[in-house]
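Reminder to self: tokens first, then the designed residues, so the page reads top to bottom the way the pipeline ran.
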């Protein structure tokens, strides 16, 4: 566990690293596909977003959202992911939307850096982006690793 500073460019670099991003997305998808049928159902995707804490926490500050509003929100997210309205989200749909979401977060952050605590059990993509940044820092300064 450690603390790193990330901003929009950190997140962008993570998404633009196609190979790494694809791998991260595939790993996440496999972990989220609880019944292993190769697609994400509505409840599987909801669990995904609950674990990412993208909606509940805004720049590290917890905001309280009423449950019925959350359900509406998750439903609209699911519809956005499910491009072909098949009732489930496949890997391609998941990757496409995650990319858009991460880029939107990057735009939101812009050049305004946020401090990020790296917790071992935090599965979020933001954490992975932060770790990428962290490893770069250590590469630049080998004596610190
Ligand atoms: Ca599934």
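Designed residues (145 positions):
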């Amino acid at each position: 566990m450690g603390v790193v500073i990330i901003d929009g460019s950190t997140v962008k670099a993570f998404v633009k690293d196609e190979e790494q991003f694809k791998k991260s997305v595939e790993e996440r998808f496999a972990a989220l596909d609880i019944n292993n049928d190769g697609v994400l159902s509505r409840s599987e995707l909801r669990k995904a977003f609950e674990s990412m804490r993208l909606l509940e926490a805004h720049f590290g500050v917890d905001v309280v959202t009423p449950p019925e509003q959350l359900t509406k929100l998750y439903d609209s997210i699911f519809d956005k992911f499910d491009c072909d309205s098949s009732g489930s989200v496949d890997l391609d749909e998941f990757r496409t939307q995650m990319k858009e979401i991460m880029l939107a977060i990057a735009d939101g952050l812009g050049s305004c850096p946020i401090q990020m605590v790296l917790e071992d059990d935090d599965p979020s993509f933001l954490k992975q982006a932060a770790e990428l940044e962290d490893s770069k820092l250590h590469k630049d300064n080998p004596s610190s690793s």
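Strands lie at 2-6, 57-58, 61-62, 114-118.
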